[in-house]
Amino acid sequence: MTLSLAQRVTLANKPLGFNALVVERTSRCNARCAICYQGSSPQGKVQKGKKSANDAKDLSPELIRRALLEGSRLDSLNKRFHLAGGEAFLDAELCLELFAYAQSLGYYDITTTTNGFWAKSPDKARILTRRMREAGVTNIELSTDHWHAPFVQPTTINNCLRACLEAGISVNLRLLATHEHTHAATLATLDPYLLNHTTRITCGPVFAVGRATEQLSTEEFFRRGAEGRCFAVLNLAIVPNGNVFPCCAGMDHTDGLLFGNIAEQHLAEIVHNINHSPLFRVVSYAGVSRFLQPLQHLGYPMKTSEEYGNMCDLCSTIFSNRQMVADLSRYNSQLEAEQVRMAIEYLQQSSAA
Amino acid sequence: MSTPLPLHSVTTQDPYPAWLFREINLIAAVEPSNGSSIQPDLTALARWLGEFQRWQAHQFLSEENRYYLLLGRRVHLQLQCSWLEGTPYVQQLAQVVARTGHALTLRMSAEQALHPPEEIKQLLQNRRIQKFLLNLPNPLTAQLLPALTELVELLLSCRVMPIFLGDMANLLQSGLLHNPRLNAANFTLYPSQRHLDFQPSHPVDSCATHLSWFIDSKGDIYPCGGLSGIRSAQLGTIFESAETTLQRMANHPTLPLQDLIQHGPTLHTAQKNIINRFNIPFKCLLHRKEIEAAPI
Ligand code: SF4
Ligand code: SF4
Predict the structure, then answer these.
(1) How far is it, in rounded angstroms, from Cα A166 to Cα A163?
(2) Under 8 Å CB-to-CB from A1, ≥6 apart: which residues?
(3) Does A49 contact chain B (CB < 8 Å)?
(4) Secondary structure in 3-state letters for chain A
(5) How distant is the Cα of B224 from the closest Cα of chain A, in angstroms?
(6) Does A106 touch chain B (CB under 8 A)?
(7) Ligand 1 touching residue A250 (CB < 6 A)
(8) Which of A76, A168, A200 has its CB closest to that of B203?
(9) Does A177 touch chain B (CB under 8 A)?
């Protein structure tokens, strides 16, 4: 794991910033999409036909309110509140109440992810989006694609798009594709006028994570390799059992490296733990692929960097394995001692110069 | 103009939260009034960015660490000319941007972006440009498609994210979205009519996500693209010191930035029966009209 001096200084000192407070309120969802990275279902997180041992009930409204209040005072947190699930709108009234509370605390960007199932009739869609807008919602991320379609029809998505347009809520339509099921095919099912008035359409490939690993054949996946760093895209994510993670892109569904639980600690304390986690600092500032070599060295049969779907795929693999994390921690401590020695050497050299 | 405050004192006076102005939007175009060269002037821009960077470093080292993201992380260059005129400008800007620790996004009309020269290919290969936004023509003709596909595949092979701005029906008809390499990548679409011909029932919300250092081809700085060209909303220019810009931002005589961040513009003028014919958000259209006091 060779790092330049500048990288070492960043790794050691630079505080992490978070783009949003993301609350994954529930692991339950009306749908059970084959590509769900969280493995959500009406019963909660279900993978390989079983309920996950780590899955908790829904995160309580009291804890969410507490997190919002504590988050509103954190300097390193952008004042964006994002409510996600599973499907958060299984309890729409609670969502509205939380949005309004966030707005009263000074969060200026209030957003949510939904599959839009609640927009079955145009009237229902209109009423709910108007109330969302009044509660401060600025943007919704609307998931739709080949795998969502059996649970939420394109007509419902059209209702949702129209209602958001009328209410003044911007929409980020989020699509996933595989070799077989393209973005063009999904977009062709939607109303062209509404598509042209959507704020943004974000397209990405399905990766081999979550339920997709058991429901899709390996040939369908794309692979982009595990290189990359994530310090600029971090969020403070709270999962249904109250654990807090520095991202909502995969690590939040692991349990190998924990930073704290909102039921037991103040959010500021958890942020402190994240900021001072040597392993996480490597992941965010240097890239999780830095761990491949040490893990191979420690005897783990790792794939090459190119063989992983993306960096989050590798990250989930590593941080789901407690033994691997413990071994990496030990390895990293040795490395840190080495870094201190090099820093002293550098300072001695530069003061001599 | 008042005497500039020393850099460190701006922080103690201004009330802005840490995540403001995360991006720099730069419009570069051929300026006939300036000997037909591409403007704004990169030497002035580099100096302004450098000063700002030093100010940020100072904040970064101060005990509160609150303002380390003020300058942002990304420069969006909107290049309004062809490769023939623009290539040296992009090369130099890429250097400036890398030196000041930013990422670079390039935005061009698709027709002008086709067949990039070797120098630009090199920048792409070395990932000195991280995202590439293409304004698609309407109609997107079959003749254009092979060269456009070639460009998109070049971007993907360099791991540069393509972003398309255009008419969605047109794009779907063109068949570009069936490209297997595109379906294996992350990319974004911005429908070109997203703000047109419509008035939402709740048009106004916080401006926090819209604000940026918006620098036009004259080097004038505005707090967002929506207010570009309105003198009373100007924050400064790249030809003055970054301190002066920051100071004016902290004590702007007419622009209540803190209110804009939290709540968006306060509108007094009637908003009924107006149709957005411009490609800017409806609230920005209203805000411009409010400032200009133009009859609605
Ligand atoms: S690499 Fe890990 S920590 Fe970073 S965004 Fe991906 S899952 Fe999250
Ligand atoms: S409403 Fe005004 S200040 Fe806000 S983003 Fe639009 S033009 Fe800028």
Answers:
(1) 5
(2) A282, A286, A290, A291, A293, A294, A335
(3) no
(4) CCCCHHHHHHHHHCCCCECCEEEECCCECCCCCCCCCCCCECCCCEECCEECCCCCCCCCHHHHHHHHHHHCCCCCECCEEEEECCCHHHHHHHHHHHHHHHHHCCCCEEEEEECCHHHCCHHHHHHHHHHHHHCCEEEEEEECCCCCCCCCCHHHHHHHHHHHHHHCCEEEEEEEECCCCCHHHHHCCCCHHHHHCCCEEEEEECCCCCCHHHHCCHHHCCCCCCCCCCHHHCCEEECCCCEEECCCCCHHHCCCCCCCECCCCCHHHHHHHHHCCHHHHHHHHHCHHHHHHHHHHCCCCCCCHHHCCCHHHHHHHHHCCHHHHHHHHHHHHHHHHHHHHHHHHHHHHHHHC
(5) 17
(6) yes
(7) yes
(8) A168
(9) yes
Burial class for A274, CB neighbours closer than 10 Å (0-12, 13-18, 19+): buried
Nearest-angstrom CA–CA distance, A243 and A261: 4
Q: Which residue of A has its CA nearest to B102?
A: A232
From the CB of B236, is ligand 2 less than 6 Å away? no
Percent of chain A scored above 90 by pLDDT?
A: 63
- CA of residue B259 relative to chain centroid, distance: 22
Chain B interface, best mutation among A78, A103, A127, by max B CB count within 10 A? A78
Mutation for testing the A interface, residue in B155, B205, B263, B267 having most A CBs under 10 Å: B205
Q: Is B224 in the pocket of ligand 2 (CB under 6 A)?
A: yes
Q: Is B257 in the pocket of ligand 2 (CB under 6 A)?
A: no
Q: Which of A165, A200, A205 sits opposite B200 (nearest CB)?
A: A165
Report CA(A271)–ligand 1 centroid distance (Å). Answer: 16
Distance CA A202, CA B254 (A): 37
Find out whether B160 and B130 touch, Cβ atoms under 8 Å.
Answer: yes
**Residue found by looking up tokens 């895209």 in the block:** A233
Q: How many CB atoms lie within 10 A of CB A147?
A: 23
Q: What is the pLDDT of residues A200-237, one digit of tens each?
A: 999 999 877 778 777 777 777 777 789 888 887 899 99
CA distance A121 to B180: 35
Rounded alpha-carbon distances, angstroms, from residue B157 to A120, B109, B127, B185: 41, 21, 11, 10
Compute, in angstroms, the gap from residue A287 CA to the centroid of ligand 1: 9
CB contact under 8 A, B169 and A182: no
Q: How confident is the model at residue B13 (pLDDT cuts 50, 70, 90)?
A: very low
Q: Is the pLDDT of residue B62 over 70?
A: no
As beta bridge partners, residue B163 has: B133, B188
- Measured CA to CA, the distance from residue A319 to residue A296 in angstroms comes to 16
Q: Whole-angstrom Cα distance, residue B180 to residue A300?
A: 34
Neighbours of B63 (CB within 10 A): 5
This model of the complex carries an ipTM of 0.87
Ligand nearest to the CA of A277: 1
Is B68 or A353 the better-scoring residue by pLDDT? A353
Among the listed residues A20, A8, A72, A16, the one whose alpha carbon sits nearest the alpha carbon of residue A277: A16
- The alpha-carbon gap from B294 to the nearest alpha carbon of chain A, in Å, equals 23
Distance of CA B251 to the CA centre of its chain: 23
Report the distance separating Cα A281 and Cα A286, nearest Å.
7
Which burial class, exposed, middle or buried, applies to B149 when counting CB atoms under 10 A from its CB (0-12, 13-18, 19+)?
middle
